[in-house]
Amino acid sequence: MAETSKPQVAFYWCASCGGCEEAVVDLAEDILGVVDAVDIIFWPVALDFKRADVDARPDGSIAVAFINGAIRTSEQEEMARLLRRKAQLVVAFGACAHLGGIPALGNLWERGTIFQRVYDEAPSVTNPEHAHPQESWSADGHATTLPAFHDTVRALDQVVEVDYYLPGCPPTPKVIKDAVGAILSGTLPPRGTVLAPDIALCDQCPLKESKPERLLITEFKRPHQVEIDPNVCLLAQGLVCLGPATRGGCEAVCPRAHMPCTGCFGPTSRVIDVGAKMISAVASIVDAADAGAIDGILSTIPDPVGTFYRYSLASSRLRRRTPTEQPAVAGAEEPD
Amino acid sequence: MPDHEHQIGQHGDGWEPTIVAFFCNWCTYTAADLAGTSRLKYPPNARVIRVMCSGRVDPQFIVDAFARGADGVLIGGCHPGDCHYIEGNYKTLRRMALLRRVLEGMGIAPTRLRLEWISASEGEKVARVIREMTESLRALGPLNLPAMRRRWDAELIPDAVAAPSDVRQLAAEGR
Amino acid sequence: MRHKEHAGNGAPRVGVYICHCGTNIAAVVDVKRLTEYAATLPSVALAREYKYMCSDPGQALIRSDIAEHKLNRVVVAACSPLLHEHTFRGAVESAGLNPYYFQMVSIRELDAWVHTDGVEATRKAEDLIRAAVQRVIFHEPLETRRVPVNPNVLIVGGGIAGIHAALTMANAGKHVYLVEREPTIGGHMAKFDKTFPTLDCAACILTPKMTAVGTHPNITLWTYAEVQQVDGYVGNYHVTVRRKPRYIIEELCVGCQECIDACVYKEAKVLDEFNLGLGKRKPVYLPFPQAVPLLVVIDPETCIEFKSGKCKKTCVEACGDRGAIDFKQTERLEEIDVGAIVLATGFRSFDAHRVPYYGYGTYPNVFSALEVERLVNAAGPTGGQVVLRDGRRPERVGIIHCVGSRDENYNIYCSRVCCMYSIKLAHLIRERSGAEVYNFYIDIRTPGKGFEEFYRRTLDEGVHFIRGKVAQVSEWATRPEEEGKLTIQVEDTLAGMIRRIPVDMVVLSTALEPQADAEAVRRLFNISCSTEGWFLERHPKLAPVSTFTDGIFLAGACQAPKDIPDSVAQAGAAAAEALAIIDAGSIALEPNTAYIIADDCSGCKTCIPLCPYRAIAFSAETAKAEITEALCKGCGVCVAACPSGSIHQHLFEDAQILAEIEGVLAAVRA
């Protein structure tokens, strides 16, 4: 393989929606600058290099591996470990790699329950033989294998050591551009840093000025229940906006589009469990003093786990639902 | 330090629950001192962490305590209306209400998190609450999330590939 | 999470000290093993055990180790930090190390004293020490804040305790505000005739002190007034006092009482509060002849002018040129600033109606002890004569001890003074009326100076003492000698038989209870009450006059039942402690305030409505929240609420508490 002097870069996707790959493409004309400056030697969604090509490279020869998606299967775990060996820097790209992301909500169930739902019970499924994926299967003298499906979804740093994090679902073009620029110019902050401003989103939100100084909530609303006033702080309108707990850097794209922040950039560096912190903030401003009234107001948040840990369940302190203590989450239709 | 490990096994074979207790300085901690000076006796399962007000108890502390192996978390604050800082305990009440919903959704039995109002003169209540909570946790069994995490992580590949420190070594050599 | 780097004085070198506390700790906890364990913990430079760490040699040990072994953190495992944290911080400071590089672990009140299994207690102590060592590594050097102290004092309650405290402090040159709810000071003592055991005339010893209060240049006396609101903190309390209208202009009234004589009510018709309803007064009245201040009061509930607007107002006429009567007077709010507050709000008598089988309120000749105090008082409604309701002299009187005290149905506690006042009343009744007197008691409690002698004297005078709790008082006669009498039925436990003793008059020695509004009052001042409702002292043995709220002190029966000498002593003690704060000139506040890292704050405003002291404000300029340190009390509510972790609390940083959590759980394994 021809040696070049440009830094070699790999992109890989684990349990991913593909949005992070699109985010790279969304750099639009800026992508030309990137393509010029680096040699992309592995990018399954776009280029035809194989795993064996990566395997063949010397350890540490890849300058940066951008890995997006959560770790859900043994194959994704293997690839993450492989890229870690082969790369000098591993960057967790996007909320799934950073925190576990949306796939991590699967941690509210186990593999058995999930397979049953997907392969047997989902309304549009007909599967009279109850065929479920198997790790290995022989038929007609041929053996086939599938990667193991983990019971627990993991963020990237729960499997390999990660050097930097690009937050967001997906990371915004600006965040990506700034990060790639820093990497290429070698002006990186200490290892382990999340490459976005270490301050909550309210700092950048155009609606911040309209937020009342003494905001107390008597009822929470969901977006479809409110005619959203585009000029007023969304939390002040009763929507559960996670802006106060979420790292900025996205320039408040969602609030600007009149939707409350759902927390995809994750916490600031000073927080160890972003769901718990937002719970603290939201509950503190509930305007009630006795248990009954408090419960009444809190019941207007129908799915607290999903609301406060939407992207971060895998990297929360509890990591996943503990399966032995209780049957499945109330409200989910599992016949567990 | 094997000598100092507590026995955690299947519940019933000498395992004892561990309770992390956050006590507010003015009411509950004082009451705990009173229980001490009155020589009341209660089970040794609680570990008290003193804060000035129950309102200082961040839900992060609670999930961290569970994550590190607490079987139960107890928060002691002043009775509503009596908070030394006027209304800190109301914030605690609200936070615990929401946290409890989330803990339930995460499969942690709600009785593992207990919020009690204990005034400075209620030494007897401190003893009683710790006794009751110890008994109810003994019946419920251990939570022991550290052990659970090790079981969950058993599905990962044992680390046969080079440890990341090799990469850093390589980088240090300029490669 | 990026844990806070441990602050600035080099790699941590922790000294751990395990106290035996004599045998208090050492008898249960294996201190030797603990010390060995502590020495193995990361960052621990040395671990020692000692018999009494709080003693001089104990503290000297810390000092010399800091110097010799270059310790920069100290952990002491001993008694409660509420007792000795201050002591050890002082020891650390005197060795030149910042006193806040110190953490205390309670292995006594929270361990050795409450557990019996030594192995478990030791294991628990290991966890607690480990947690403290991990925590203290994250401690930072802090400066104790000092704030100036306002030299004025507020005393709430003008009974003997409040009066004594007021005079003590006023004589020390401080300005005292004495606020009393009734129209006159004097409290319960003003109602007594004689005091035990010396049989001093209560008025003779009290009224000079009352007069002194009324004339003292350093005392502002507001009677018929109540505290409405208290803001601020030790050294700087801002208090609002509500002065109720007497409808008399105080500066003009000279206490001649001609208005009372001239009142259109020729006869006194209103039940007199001071005489507990045994006497009558007019709508315009003086509470009692030696009232201080000597000002009349007009009662708007019974005065015709208030009820109909159509009175001849002969009182105004009688007052003449002085013109001291003002029917239009309204309540006034006074705002004052004081540095310390003494609560001396006294007690209330148990309501004997609650014990129906003693007949109070049913049979006219069943009296409460306080009512009998008024009867025997020469200035009382009967001129000092002990008489029944119909004016006859009683021939036989029964005094029932422990009404509402030492009783599971009412109050478990002993009210401390009732045996003595019951013996006193027995003596006075016998003296005034010659009646046969029977005292019915559970135990005779006469522990004070001269008390036992007084009891002996009364026995010698022929008063009968029967040991037994009275079962009932009733008018139902079962024998001829009980006709027309009140019969006391009791088990005489020394004689071993049930007795029925007919008497003419029954006196109930009622318990002392906290005032009816004690709960509301203690909330006003942000102190605590005990389970029975008495104001709670900081420590039952060593701090009986201070409370957990700095700057607020207790004196007298509001803290627990006590007699006059104890009330006076306690009032002197409270005055001394209040003076100590004031004369120090400034007060040290625990530096556990919250602070915002401005660069981290996003201006989300979550914290702004949460602070009950309004210490957090939003700055329009910077669009961020700011904390005013002087107003912050250190509760930490905002710290827990800040969704981006941008508010910190000195002494209770997240990193410190998380280290403690990690430490107590470190030994949990599978």
Can you tell me about this structure?
The complex is a heterotrimer of chains A (336), B (175) and C (670). With 336 residues, chain A is of the alpha/beta class. Chain A is 27% helix and 13% strand. Chain A folds into three domains: 8-102 and 151-185, NADH:ubiquinone oxidoreductase-like, 20kDa subunit (Rossmann fold), CATH 3.40.50.700; 110-149, no CATH class; 201-308, no CATH class. In chain A, strands 2-1-3-5-9 form a five-stranded parallel β-sheet, with helices on both faces. In chain A, strands 4-8 form a two-stranded antiparallel sheet. Chain A has a two-stranded antiparallel sheet with strand order 6-7. The longest helix of chain B is centred in the middle third of the chain and has 18 residues, at 88-105. Chain B has helices at 25-37, 59-67, 88-105, 123-140, 145-152, 164-172, and strands at 19-24, 46-51, 72-77, 113-117. Chain C contains 17 helices and 34 strands. A five-stranded parallel β-sheet of chain C has the order 10-7-6-18-29, covered by helices on one side. Chain C has a five-stranded parallel β-sheet with strand order 20-27-21-22-23. In chain C, strands 2-1-3-4 form a four-stranded parallel β-sheet, with helices on both faces. The longest helix of chain C is centred in the C-terminal third of the chain and has 21 residues, at 564-584. Chains in contact: A-B, A-C, B-C. At the B-C interface, helix 1, strand 2, helix 2, helix 3 and helix 5 of B face helix 4, helix 5, helix 16 and helix 17 of C.
In short, what is this structure?
The complex is a heterotrimer of chains A (336), B (175) and C (670). With 175 residues, chain B is of the alpha/beta class.
Topology overview:
The complex is a heterotrimer of chains A (336), B (175) and C (670).
Chain A: E1 8-13, H1 19-25, H2 30-37, E2 39-42, H3 51-56, E3 62-68, E4 71-73, H4 74-86, E5 87-93, H5 95-99, H6 111-121, E6 136-139, E7 142-145, E8 149-154, E9 164-166, H7 173-185, H8 253-256, H9 274-284, H10 291-298, H11 304-308
Parallel strand pairs in A: 1-2, 1-3, 3-5, 5-9
Antiparallel strand pairs in A: 4-8, 6-7
Chain B: E1 19-24, H1 25-37, E2 46-51, H2 59-67, E3 72-77, H3 88-105, E4 113-117, H4 123-140, H5 145-152, H6 164-172
Parallel strand pairs in B: 1-2, 1-3, 3-4
Helix pairs in contact in B: 1-4
Chain C: E1 14-19, H1 31-40, E2 44-50, H2 56-69, E3 73-78, H3 81-94, E4 102-106, H4 108-112, H5 118-136, E5 145-148, E6 153-156, H6 160-171, E7 176-179, E8 194-195, E9 200-201, H7 202-215, E10 219-222, E11 225-233, E12 236-243, H8 258-262, E13 270-271, E14 280-281, E15 284-285, E16 297-298, H9 304-308, H10 314-319, E17 332-338, E18 340-343, E19 347-349, E20 366-368, H11 369-376, E21 396-403, H12 418-433, E22 436-441, H13 451-460, E23 464-467, E24 470-474, E25 486-492, E26 497-503, E27 505-510, E28 512-514, H14 518-524, E29 552-554, H15 564-584, E30 586-589, E31 594-596, E32 616-619, E33 624-627, H16 637-641, E34 647-649, H17 654-665
Parallel strand pairs in C: 1-2, 1-3, 3-4, 6-7, 6-18, 7-10, 18-29, 20-27, 21-22, 21-27, 22-23
Antiparallel strand pairs in C: 5-30, 8-9, 11-12, 12-17, 13-14, 15-16, 19-28, 24-25, 25-26, 31-34, 32-33
